[in-house]
Amino acid sequence: MAITSNSSSWCRSDKAADDATPDLKLDITTRTLPSPPPCGEGSGVGVTPGTAVHDKHGARRVGKATAEGDACPPAASTGARDGGHGAHASAFPRRRRRPAPLPTLRISRLAAVLVLAITPALAAPKLFESTQLTPSGEYTFGIEGPAVDRDGNLYVVNFGKAGTIGKLAPEASASEKYTELPEGSIGNAIRIDAAGTMFIADYKRHNIFAIAPGATEPQLVFHADEMSQPNDITLARDGTIYASDPAFKARSGRIWRIAKGPDGAMQGVAMTAPRAMGTTNGIDLSPDGRTLYVGESNSGEIWSYAIEGDALTRPKLITKFEPNTIDGLRTDVSGRLLVARILKGTIAVLAPDGRVTRDIALKAKEPTNLAFGGSDGKTVYVTQRQGGFIESFRTDVEGREHCLQRHVC
Hints:
This protein is mainly β. It starts with 14 loop residues before the first helix and ends with a helix.
């Protein structure tokens, strides 16, 4: 009996041959086996339909094989490779190398699929788990105003010394100097509009600077002597700037509305409000742009206002924290507020109605502000006054300004 070179099984003529055949279960090594006895006369001959054979009397017949025992598979013709062993050896060549059994290959493929499926899940960062991005001491005690452009670059004020702006490129682990404000000016907030223009609030000289896309030189676009200071700013869909203007010593404040006038120049006015405000600090808009959220540092309160031209109306107390424990705040596209809890070392996540739904623990205790970035707008960057570094965490909802930058909101 012989095993054809393209067969996945072999034929055994009797029990002795069966016992002599090595067990090859799931053995992926290759080996050459001795040829079992051929399917001889009286033991049955395996023939494919239409194959001519001769019986023991020399009669030639064509048709299916008849078997008195185990049938053998069709013999492959070996042609000139019979090695001089004659026709019988040519018809029944010696066993050749056997391929790896399919079950083993299937198991290997299944294991590979499982590894590919599990690896991304293991590599993905956990939501709301903050990590430190930049070395401690990169920024001064005045680290503030983070903002992200459409290319994913993060900008933060006061890199190395007051009056500068640092830049952290995507995937980078250290910041570099981006630009410097004019002598005597110190930035406190940065925002970037959909066109790529950067706006910087200069709290020291009561200015708003702008840096055009592709440039690094700040240009003065607004100044007001009667302003105490522009502290934090936010941008509306139409380019209007809203700036908080706290008077810390007086424990009071107000909001400025700054927009282009008929001549194209930026014009600003202090907005009216039906209540006396505390030290206005963190500020942002709702996703529809109709509501302005304002945090008051001295009282720890966060208020909402309806916007009607240059007036703030329908004030509503959203929530109240301990005095002097809130700083910057930002909204996401679902309307939630993320609030920097300075001295508490957390970012509080608030529903639009003011309910605290989550407190995100940070690496240091003095977060001053935050910004959304990353390719999907779900990475939150936090400026840490304690240590002078930037940290970040992943969230589950895109930031409002990130969405506006891409004209999809």
